[in-house]
Amino acid sequence: MITTEINASIGHLIIDLPGRSMNVFTPALADEMGRQFERLVGDDAIKAIVISSAKSSFIAGADLEQMADLAGPDVSPADALQRISCYGNLFRRIETCGKPVVAAASGTALGAGLELMLACHYRIAADNSRAQFGLPEVKLGLLPGAGGTQRLPRIIGVARSIPLLTKGTALSAQDALSLGILDEIVPPDQLRKAAETAVSEGRVKASAPWDEKGFRLPGGDCYAPANANALVAANAATHASIRDNYPAPYAILRCIYEGARLPIGKALLIEQKHFVLLVQGSVAQNMIRTLFFAKQAASKLARRPAGIAKSQVGKVGVLGAGFMGAGIAQVSAAAGIDVVLLDRDLATAQRGYDNIAQALEIEVKKGRLAQAARDALLSRIGVADSYAAFGDCDLVVEAVLEDAALKASVTKATEAATSANAIFATNTSALPINELAASSIRPENFIGLHFFSPVSRMELVEVIVGKNTSAQTLARSLDYIQQIRKTPIVVNDGYGFYTSRCVDAYIREGIRLLADGVSAALIENGGVALGMPVGPLALADEVGIDVLYHIGHLFRAREAGAWADDRHVAQNRIVDLLKECKRLGRKSGHGFYLYPGDAPKRLDTGFVGHAREIDIAEVKERLLYAQVIEAARCWADGVVVDAAEADLGAQLAWAFPSWLGGPFSFIDGIGAQAFVKQCDQFVALYGPRFEVPQLLREFETKGGRFYTDGVPVQSPLRGAAA
Ligand code: NAI
């Protein structure tokens, strides 16, 4: 785990966590490192110590499994404090050991990895364009609890630390150098030599500046005008963007403010106290469970059927060169896959290609893509107007208009041209896969791959398994998703699958609030205050009123019962009316909002409330419960199989508030019993659309939980995808 070497009176401590591609701090590693460090410190022949990594990166952070354990029911705050103090104590010991210590980073140093560097007296990094330096804890609801909030302001000043800590921004080595976080960048093969030279030339002191008498923070204390302004502005900006849903950025600001006035030893204790409050809170635990563990499992293809050889797509056909087709072609070509883009005629296919070229041009102009990479990507995409071009494709993704008859005809034409082994994937957003597969002569090769727009930026793909889809097809499709660097969730078939049903429920509850006479502005504020990126009406306009109309009628034809009547009648009336008036949302310049040219959109004043004004808390609750109940229905219908995957899908597909973890984390958080009781009250207050599915009621009576000890419980209705 740790090796030590001595060269020219300099002790080298080299970290290499076995079995992992990156070093991650664990209590065991900290313990071992502490012991080896003391050996070097205690050796009088050693003048200075250099800490480095045997891997191409330095240290990627601290072990999150330990962080998840800290919220266990039998862990007291004092226990938690004691358990995490291994990192802080080690770093403080390094800082005060009395010998000069250099951190020499071969690559990325994030979280506790960077905190370790900050505790060293001199920081060098290899010139590695892929290396990142940052304190991203806030992105999982935490703060850097091993000195990050205290040492960073003492190195680069309060004002400059604030965005790095409250946003968790990762920096390149060059930017970290410019800010003063790093002292030096050197070619990778000179890292060790440079560290030794820094020592021999006397550039490394044996103590930290903040441990010396008369130390002043660079840029002054928190009352220096620039710092005070930065703190106030950060507080206001945090409140505007996340309201009070996420405690971590506020805790970080408090750590900076409280800690900057104190000697470092006391300041570090304040930081640890805030860390424990966060790590034992539900927000951080929800975020860690979903955004780390569920995401990691999904990207490692946890749902891939076993025993099937790993595959690679060499050539993909994309059918329909419109908005989605062009995006799918682009991300495939970006992953090195050859693409053929086919539309009803060559000119339309060429238009799709031109749109990709244009999108890439913008990336090049912004410096996010090299010209050569753009050229290489485009050279992999060909256009065609004949199905014969699909002859050697391993996979064809269909992205023609959302029309079942059209999809049936292109399925037949594609299958006539492709090999018996080729997969046919439809990108439909709502049509049941089993119904579409009815026109297929190879239903075992038929699958749903639901991408999200814009494809280049949205990382999720919802994989829909039909009743005849083979395990082979599922495994190969998952391999393709991994190849194009997206994250899959696997669901069973049904109208709207999982994600389209839930996002639709959010939008429609917003429209229902409008039908109930609540003002549009309050509805939109309620959505944002809940933590959704946009209100339900703005989202309706983005999706398009014509699409909502189509989906509304599709769902209406398949949903039965009092809850379905209640859900559709009032909402559909408004959607139908808007469609009749050709107010289709953003695309027509007018929907719930007006889109006046280049000016920002504004709510149509026709939507002021008329019947009653309600508390925003009711708006938030209705918008939240509408989504969660729909997710629970998907679970009861057997569409959703795995709660963790469904929670991840909720966040990645329709930006369900990450502070709540996901619909199933939310139910567990308040308890199934309380959830059902609350829904029963909503039925009485607002209508039967808040009815919970019978299966959830039974689950609740048995004391069910979706996660036990952090492990998601599988749906009792496991189908083909299970
Ligand atoms: P689009 O209208 O931008 O593109 C559809 C393309 O299909 C057009 O280029 C059209 O010329 C082509 N097409 C029509 N008939 C054809 C035929 N007979 N042969 C070959 N090509 C033909 O539509 P968009 O938005 O790209 O949607 C495509 C599919 O993706 C739909 O099923 C939609 O539900 C689904 N989807 C759309 C999302 C979105 O946000 N727009 C998100 C997820 C899925």
UniProtKB/TrEMBL annotation:
3-hydroxyacyl-CoA dehydrogenase NAD binding domain: residues covered: 315-493
Residues annotated as signal peptide: none
Keywords on record: Fatty acid metabolism, Lipid degradation, Lipid metabolism, Lyase, Multifunctional enzyme, NAD, Oxidoreductase
A Pfam family that the UniProt record links to this protein: ECH_1
Molecular function GO terms recorded: enoyl-CoA hydratase activity; long-chain (3S)-3-hydroxyacyl-CoA dehydrogenase (NAD+) activity; NAD+ binding
Pathway(s) the chain acts in: Lipid metabolism; fatty acid beta-oxidation
Recorded catalytic activity of this chain's protein: a (3S)-3-hydroxyacyl-CoA + NAD(+) = a 3-oxoacyl-CoA + NADH + H(+)
Domain 3-hydroxyacyl-CoA dehydrogenase C-terminal: 496-595
Classification via InterPro entries: 3-OHacyl-CoA_DH_NAD-bd, 3HC_DH_C, 6-PGluconate_DH-like_C_sf, ClpP/crotonase-like_dom_sf, Enoyl-CoA_hydra/iso, FA_oxidation_alpha_subunit, NAD(P)-bd_dom_sf
Any single biological process term in GO: fatty acid beta-oxidation
Family assignment from sequence similarity: In the central section; belongs to the 3-hydroxyacyl-CoA dehydrogenase family.
PANTHER family: TRIFUNCTIONAL ENZYME SUBUNIT ALPHA (PTHR43612), TRIFUNCTIONAL ENZYME SUBUNIT ALPHA, MITOCHONDRIAL (PTHR43612:SF3)
Official protein name in the record: 3-hydroxyacyl-CoA dehydrogenase
Organism per entry: Noviherbaspirillum sedimenti
